[in-house]
Specification:
- This protein is α+β, with helices and mostly antiparallel strands.
- The chain has 15 helices and 7 strands.
- The strands form 2 sheets. A 5-stranded antiparallel beta sheet has the order 4-6-7-3-5.
Length: about 350
């Protein structure tokens, strides 16, 4: 091959490499860039929000500050509810210190909790247990910037982008509506916020100003958080004075005819369960009563049978996991017991 051709070929290859590197850099920059001036989908979202009355300049400044966080996408696929046995999940939350702190929180906010029970019918220990599981009573509200998490999920999640775009829009409406800089707030990798870890649309729908100071502040105000959690449960059908679950006994091998651990309204009758060898060991259930059958697994292979009632289903509306609802119910019971024992 003539020397001139070899030089031209090397030059062409160099140009190709430079071009490919430039394209890769552009792709990487696009992933990290939510500037509405260069991201048409962001621009379209802001156009809709500005037409609703939000200030365009502040919207643009917020999205220019947003950063792509790939670790958020990874975290979405590794939630503890999807990979742990019941005893493993239980041991994360049911610990002496968390119970002790729950008792202290209940005592410190007794008036607000009693008022929430009067208004919404939700017992204090249930509200406190939600706070205990979600943020350890406000101590751990999240380390991810909400703006980054929601922007990443809104524009990069492979299947739920539309859902998270709605959450991002709600977040911008909440923060800018209250005069808060969206880039300053932190929460979970999925964009849940404040003491109760509400996602933005739940914040809009269920947050209440429970201390009547003119603000619905779930980031800094535990009283507003108490009222908002109780309101959430009330709106989702909490039944005043009803239990959450009933213990049961059953065979060593799970009956194949029963659907266990579903987060759906109670639909299995006590009669059907008894025919499969599962019987309530406490509580006053009638043969026709409907429940949610639960089979909780342990490391040694044994199974604990529990029957979830309507209020158990309501707890799963907060987090669609039977493990989560069991952790809340268990922590609530332990806090109530500790209170009665004078802890």
């Amino acid at each position: 091959m003539p020397l001139r051709w070899r030089r031209e070929r090397r030059f062409s290859i160099s140009l190709l490499l430079v071009s490919l590197l430039g394209m890769a850099s552009a792709v990487a920059q696009a992933e990290e860039n939510f500037d509405p001036a260069t991201h048409p989908d962001v621009g379209a979202m802001l156009e809709g929000l500005s037409q609703q009355g939000l200030p365009r300049q502040k919207l643009e400044a917020a999205m220019q500050a947003a950063q792509y966080r790939p670790q958020v996408l990874k975290a979405m696929n590794h939630a503890a509810e999807r990979r742990l046995r019941w005893d493993e999940y239980r041991d994360i939350f049911i610990q002496p210190e968390r119970i002790r702190q729950g008792v202290a929180f209940l005592k410190s906010h007794h008036e607000a909790l009693a008022r929430a029970e009067k208004v919404y019918g939700v017992p204090p220990e249930i509200v406190v247990a939600i706070l205990g599981v979600e943020t350890q009573y406000g101590q751990h509200k999240g380390t991810h910037r909400v703006l980054d998490s929601l922007s990443t999920l809104a524009f990069h999640h492979p299947s739920r982008g539309t859902f998270f775009r709605g959450e991002l829009e709600a977040f911008l409406e909440i923060t800018l509506g209250q005069g808060v800089d969206p880039a300053t707030l932190y929460g979970s990798y999925a964009g849940a916020m404040g003491y109760p870890q509400f996602i933005p649309t739940s914040y809009q729908a269920y947050a209440v100003d429970f201390d009547f100071d003119g603000l619905k502040d779930l980031w800094n105000n535990p009283v507003d958080a108490i009222g908002s959690i109780a309101n959430y449960f009330g709106e989702h059908g909490w039944r005043r004075h009803q239990a959450v679950l009933v213990e049961a006994s059953g065979p060593e091998v799970l009956p194949s005819s029963i659907g266990f651990n579903r987060t759906e309204p109670p639909d299995t009758s006590v009669t059907t369960l008894e025919q499969a060898g599962i019987e309530p060991t406490a509580g006053r259930l009638q043969p026709g009563d409907k429940v949610v059958p639960l089979a909780l697994d342990f490391a040694d292979g044994h199974v604990r049978y529990v029957l979830g009632l309507d209020n158990f289903y309501v707890i799963t509306r907060y987090n669609h996991s039977h493990l989560y609802a069991m952790a809340v119910a268990t922590l609530a019971q332990r806090i109530q017991t500790a209170m009665s024992e004078g802890a």
